[in-house]
Amino acid sequence: KIQDKILQDLQQATYYSIILDCTPDVSHTEQMTFVIRFVKITENEDVVIKEHFLGFIPIKDSSGEGLTEALLKELKERGIPLKNMRGQGYDNGSAMKGKHVGVQKRILDLNPRAFYVPCGNHSLNLVINDAALSCNSAVDCFSTIQEIYNFFSSSTQRWSILLKNVSSLTVKPLCNTRWESRIEALLPLRYHIEEVYDALYEASQDKNLDAFGRHTAVGLVKKLQSFKFLCCIVTWHEILYKTNMVSKLLQKVTNDLQSSIDLLKSVKSFLETMRSEEGLNSVIIDAKELAEKIDVA
């Protein structure tokens, strides 16, 4: 069996780390993914990092205590010694990373050498999320983007107007959990704003639409004409493009700790530049170009 071979390799390696994450399945049962990592020395004496998915663990109690008990039971059933664990990797959920009663703390109490390393990608996502929610302009900007999607997607007639004007790229809904993926929702407005604008304007004048639909389109046209909104589009596209790229690199199997540190430092440097006079001037220049495309003075 494949899993028997994995456990045999693990036994030879001795020490290992675990990666856990929870998600509901189609039957709405919480499932915890169980992934294990260890270092294998090949016959040619090559050092290879192995990462294997061992299965799903059904979860009935999603508290720190319940998750820990489920993990310990799984380790015992597979004959994997807890004392040989050297690392824990989870997301930033309180049940997992909790300082006092989270899984990482409970495991650390049982094995002080099983150090916890939070997921860098989840941490980056939370930073972006908090930054956006602390800025009213950003909240308004993304709300408008969602309104535009809702407007067109709620009617096949409206959607056909959109497709007639924007042939290469359609508007996308926002993702509530992964902020760096919102770049997909920003792309149509960043690079095809004139087409989206024309679609909204056409909808506002279309007598085949009801009065409410035309009125909504008029309101969205006015929002697109706001220079502040255009600046937000440019700013957040730059931020999310950079963080999305770093996010993908952080998830590479070949990524190491030093590379992760360098990537996060590059994001920090980029954000500092965005906050500078140079960054502001660059945003204003790009926003003016967008304004010219939709004839905003």
Describe this structure in words.
The chain has 297 residues and is an alpha/beta fold. The protein has two domains: 2-118, 2-Layer Sandwich (Nucleotidyltransferase, domain 5); 124-293, no CATH class. 59% of the residues lie in helices and 15% in strands. It is built from 13 helices and five strands. A hairpin with a 5-residue loop joins strand 1 and strand 2. Helix 6 (136-153) runs antiparallel to helix 10 (211-224), helix 8 crosses helix 11 (227-250) and helix 11 (227-250) packs across helix 13. It comes from Homalodisca liturata. Pfam families: DUF4371.
Itemize the secondary structure elements and their pairings.
Blueprint: H1 2-13, E1 16-24, E2 30-41, E3 47-59, H2 64-78, E4 85-90, H3 94-97, H4 103-110, E5 115-118, H5 120-133, H6 136-153, H7 156-165, H8 183-191, H9 193-205, H10 211-224, H11 227-250, H12 257-274, H13 277-293
Parallel strand pairs: 1-4, 4-5
Antiparallel strand pairs: 1-2, 2-3
Helix pairs in contact: 5-11, 6-10, 6-11, 7-9, 8-11, 9-10, 11-12, 11-13
